Amino acid sequence: MGVTREMWCLSALYSAGTHEAREAHEPVVLSHMGFMRLVSQMGLSEFTRGDPIFADEAVLRDTYRPDDLIGRDEELADYQDAIQPVFNNAPPLNVFLYGQTGVGKTAATRLILDRIEADQAKFDDLQVHAVEVNCKSCRSSYQVAVDLVNQFRSKDEEISSTGYPSGKVYSLLWEHLNALDATHCLIVLDEIDSIGSDDDILYELPRANDNGHVDDPLIGVIGISNDFTFRDNLSGRVKDSLCEEELHFPPYDAEQLRLILEHRVEQAFHDDVVDYEVIPLAAAFAAAESGSARQALKLMYKAGKLARKRGLEEVTETLVREAKSLIEEGRVKDELESLPTQSQLTLYTLLQLEAEGETPCKRKQIYERYRLIAKMADADIVTDRTIHDRLSHLRLKGFVEHDERNEGKAGGSYYLYELGLQRDVVEDALRENSRVSELFGEKEAEPTLDDF
Ligand code: ADP
Ligand code: MG
User: Which one of 3.40.640.10, 1.10.8.60, 1.10.1610.10, 3.90.70.10 gives the CATH number of domain 57-63+261-335?
Assistant: First the structure.
């Protein structure tokens, strides 16, 4: 096993020295430097086939498509009801499917589409075409429309995501849809909440038949969102047409997650590798935090990978706990790195005040220092109100903490703010943003007020 074998090889080399020395029956003397060089040359070991932990690790990946969903019978039945008009040759209902991430929305949609594909063959007068777009990286309706057009085109005929007027992109889309040899076209827009308030496409698509853009096929939209507030923020005209059928996928409880994990673990790991108490523990962790099957599976996968890396024979409870904190660290780091610059500058301000022993401190003090810092970073200086919003947002994410103080009638109440994370975690993440990283100067040299 990886580590153990390497350790054995290293100690053998250290005590036996070089091949030449042995041949010459010379006493073995390997300097520390020589040893270190050998260690570094051994960075890569030979790839071999075989895995003592996983029988089929792909089963734990997000790309795996399960044949069945555990604990979703009711939701799948409702989903099927919403699609039923298609099989009666009626116009499809538009469906809005929502629920937090990892609760089986995409997996359920895939199962439904597979079912439609298989069952439509029984009806001569039915031809359902499905188009699926993941809108995660789309920031606007325009980008979704471009992605949709490209679904109908070969790689070398794809249109670029800039350069076409939006009217042209829509007319290309109508052309492609009209040209389809199908009675129905179901358009799945997964993670549609990414488009934010620019929801034009969600107005255009469900009305494409009524507005005469597409004669046939009959168009149905399935919009999937990880964020329920997205529905509330849709414009009234969109809400009416898109949300004809609303399906909610609630978070899983610990028992459901345990069943989901048991099923996957059985396929993914070799027999007797996973300790019996590990699955309920991973299920309980994921249930307490999110109710997400994705998170539960990720936890088991990470624990398995840790076991493999260390040449261990079992996935234990300890490894699951370790996997959990590693995943959390990674998530916090990713979130910090993807914050907008003004939020990062706000955090940098708090970082600096904290290093000077000035925290917890009032918003006014934060804003005064922020102004200096934003100027130094050559960034826009936003208003006190905006920084207040940034602080609230950072607090919701747990990156900032606040404490309310009440000074009675005379002083009123106010908040004192401080970092909600360890300084080095914040610093490491902020160093990844080129504009903010310049503020740090050389590592270890903490900037002080004298720098201004
Ligand atoms: P969502 O789209 O809601 O974010 P997914 O459908 O992508 O979530 O599910 C996340 C992961 O969890 C996938 O690997 C999926 O196969 C698995 N999963 C989710 N729900 C179930 C379930 N009920 N039974 C089995 N696996 C599930
Ligand atoms: Mg999904």
Answer: 1.10.8.60
- Nearest residue (CA) to ligand 1, atom 7: 106
Residue 7 has pLDDT above 60, yes or no: no
Nearest alpha carbon, ligand 1 atom 1: 102
Q: Answer left, alpha or beta for residue 375, where phi above 0 means left and psi between -120 and 50 means alpha.
A: alpha
Q: Closest ligand 1 atom, CA of 66?
A: 16
Three-class secondary structure of residue 406 per DSSP: strand
Q: What is the pLDDT of residues 35-66, one digit of tens each?
A: 445 555 567 888 877 899 999 999 999 999 99
* The architecture CATH gives domain 339-451: Orthogonal Bundle (1.10)
Q: Residue 323 pLDDT > 60, yes or no?
A: yes
Give, using CA atoms, the residue closest to atom 19 of ligand 1: 104
Whole-model pTM above 0.85? no
- For residue 65, give the ligand 1 atom closest to its CA: 16
Helix axes 384-396, 363-376, angle to 10 degrees: 100
Q: Which of 229, 432, 228 is nearest to 348 (CA)?
A: 432
Q: Pocket residues for ligand 1 (CB within 6 Å)?
A: 62, 64, 66, 69-72, 99, 101-107, 260, 293-294, 297
Q: Which fold has domain 74-248?
A: Rossmann fold (3.40.50)
